[in-house]
């Protein structure tokens, strides 16, 4: 069951984001560079809609939305634990995020990890370009839109 995250979940959510990102084969240097962008504080969770899935008191996946403007919301994060990948959990989280976003917005923006782009395209997202990485010179991230 997908439920609203508690600010007290911040540490476990941050750890899940890091483990999930590392599962794509990124090296230690890369992971150190992106550590801050994979860290979620209690304040982040209290301020931005954040939802998670728990099973046996373990967080298996989460997402976070952040308002961009009056019609656009960003899917700031969607991560699933590696041992829960391939079980439709990501799809369930994406569908839930879309339903939540649709209540107030018309478009969802996603700056995707290159390895996750195919997942988002399968959900119906449209690639609209690329955005240069803020942390890694020469790296670009797929920029996707999802009409709500």
Q: Can you offer a commentary on this structure?
A:
- The protein has 148 residues and is an alpha+beta fold.
- The protein has one domain (2-147): Aminopeptidase (3-Layer(aba) Sandwich).
- It is built from five helices and seven strands; from the N terminus they run βαααβββαβαββ.
- A seven-stranded mixed β-sheet has the order 1-2-3-4-5-7-6.
- The radius of gyration is 14 Å and the shape is globular.
- The mean pLDDT is 95.
List the helices and strands and how they pair.
Layout: E1 2-4, H1 10-22, H2 28-33, H3 42-47, E2 50-55, E3 58-67, E4 72-80, H4 89-102, E5 107-111, H5 117-122, E6 126-132, E7 140-147
Parallel strand pairs: 4-5
Antiparallel strand pairs: 1-2, 2-3, 3-4, 5-7, 6-7
Concise structural overview:
The protein has 5 helices and 7 strands.
SS elements, strand count: 7
Q: Could you tell me the mean pLDDT? A: 95
| CATH fold-level topology | Aminopeptidase
Number of separate structural domains: 1
Q: What ranges have pLDDT less than 50 throughout 5 or more consecutive residues?
A: none
Strand order of the largest sheet: 1-2-3-4-5-7-6
Total number of helical segments? 5
Gyration radius, rounded:
14 Å
Succession of helices and strands: EHHHEEEHEHEE
Q: CATH class, please?
A: Alpha Beta
Secondary structure category? alpha+beta
Biggest β-sheet description: 7 strands, mixed
Q: Name the overall outline.
A: globular
Q: If classified by CATH, what would the architecture be?
A: 3-Layer(aba) Sandwich
- Roughly how much helix do the residues carry, as a percent range? 25-40%
Q: What is the strand content?
A: 25-35%
Straight-line distance between termini: 22 Å
* CATH homologous superfamily heading: Gcn5-related N-acetyltransferase (GNAT)
